[in-house]
Specification:
Layout (H helix, E strand, L loop, with lengths): L1 H10 L5 E12 L9 E18 L4 E5 L7 E3 L10 H12 L6 E8 L9 H16 L6 H16 L6 H8 L4 E6 L5 E5 L7 E11 L3 H19 L10 H7 L2 H25 L7 H13 L6 H12 L4 E5 L4 E9 L3 H14 L6 E4 L7 E2 L2
Parallel strand pairs: 3-5
Antiparallel strand pairs: 1-2, 1-12, 2-5, 2-6, 3-4, 6-7, 8-10, 8-11, 9-10
The chain binds 2-deoxy-2-fluoro-alpha-D-galactopyranose.
């Protein structure tokens, strides 16, 4: 195992264990998690593997297969830089929550495709959290580990994300999507056997990340909180009379509310269709989700819109951007026999605009975080 070899070379001994946590794709339920809403992600076959040994002295040493020669040795977690802030943030969050964890020697190996928006950061956090949980005998429930990972990202890294990505990485099961209520944090595994219905979930990785995205996520979250406050509800999840709510709002707050409330209904509709075995019919809801993210939530970008439109033209049952937006990936629900046509149509559309070709991946629901050895 590559991560073990690199660990031996870096630290001169075998790791105490090796843990893996996956990235995720979100089938539907976008920008709903921080509104106490509903999401339906699943784990992808790519993720982060962490080889870890505990250290009694509290020091954390971090190295990465992808960043050779950039080992970081820290007594003060605040001194960590770049990618190492994610695992360091998890150690910080565990300690802050009162868990008695010491230090560790850590080597990270990741295979989440770059620029894909498939939550490599959540995978990095959850792999670290699970390793510390095992090594220090914490026996925390999976959702607690996801919350620790989210706290690391919110309060240490400084990205105000919701709980979806960390929960998907920590709790997913093979062959199933994770239906998560982000208020109660109750979850249910929903069987998702696309192949049995002659379907594939194609990930179209635009490879693009628009830098302006960074402050935009926090702004969207703020818009939602402002709208909820104006409506006198704890979160947009609680809006039951959408028409009435829209009549009381204007501008961005009105648009964000329209998206969040309808997106929660789309998640419930998808769950209903999956339960009924009408998998092909979820395509229309994916399309509606994309239009709402594009026009009401305003988190899409030309590369995502073109991928979605071309995929549908090529014969996809439905397509949408997935994840935070402003780049990353789109997903398309494609009948097996239409796969080549969909790919061609997307490639042609990109070529016509002089854009670099996107990468295609196929996603099947993979297992969640686990110990490998
Ligand atoms: C990002 C965030 F990290 C998630 O919490 C979620 O809000 C998502 O964007 C949008 O649905 O992945």
């Amino acid at each position: 195992m590559r991560v073990v070899e690199v660990f031996r070379a870096a630290y001169g001994s075998d790791p105490a264990g090796v843990w893996h946590a996956p990235g995720r794709v979100n089938l539907i339920g976008e920008h709903t998690d921080y509104n106490d809403g509903l999401v339906l992600p699943f784990a992808v076959p790519w993720g982060v593997t962490a080889a870890v040994s505990p250290r009694p002295d509290g020091v954390v040493r971090l190295a990465s297969v992808q960043a050779p020669g950039e080992e970081q040795v820290v007594e003060d977690l605040d001194q960590t830089r770049g990618w190492a802030r994610y695992p360091a943030g998890v150690v910080w969050a565990l300690r802050r929550a009162g868990h008695p964890v010491g230090g560790a020697d850590i080597v990270i190996d990741g295979d989440v495709p770059r620029g894909a928006g498939l939550s490599s950061s959540a995978a990095l956090e959850v792999a670290t959290a699970l390793a510390f949980d095992d090594l220090y005998g914490l026996a925390l429930p999976r959702m607690e580990l996801a919350k620790i990972a989210q706290r690391a990202e919110n309060d240490f890294v400084g990205m105000p994300c919701g709980i979806m990505d960390q929960a998907a990485s920590a709790l997913s099961e093979e062959g199933r999507a994770l239906f998560l209520d982000c208020r109660s944090l109750g979850s249910r595994a929903v069987p998702l056997d696309l192949a049995a219905h002659g379907l594939r979930l194609l990930i179209i990785n635009t490879g693009v990340h628009h830098e302006l995205a960074d402050g935009q996520y926090a702004r969207r979250r703020q818009d939602c909180e402002n709208a909820a406050k104006r409506l006198g509800v704890p979160a947009l999840r609680d809006v039951t009379d959408l028409a009435g709510a829209l009549a009381r709002l204007s501008g961005d707050e009105r648009k964000r509310t329209q998206h969040v409330v309808t997106e929660n209904h789309r998640v419930e509709a998808v769950i209903g269709l999956l339960r009924a075995g009408a998998v092909r019919e979820i395509g229309a809801l994916l399309n509606a989700s994309h239009l709402s993210l594009r026009d009401q939530f305003e988190v899409s970008c030309p590369e995502l819109d073109v991928a979605v439109e071309a995929a549908v033209r090529g014969g996809a049952r439905g397509a949408r951007m997935t994840g935070g937006g402003f780049g990353g990936s789109a997903i398309a629900l494609v009948p097996e026999e239409r796969l080549p046509a969909v790919r061609d149509e997307v490639l042609r559309a990109y070529e016509a605009r002089g854009w670099a070709a996107p990468a295609f991946l196929e996603a099947t629901p993979a297992p969640g975080a686990r110990r490998l050895r």
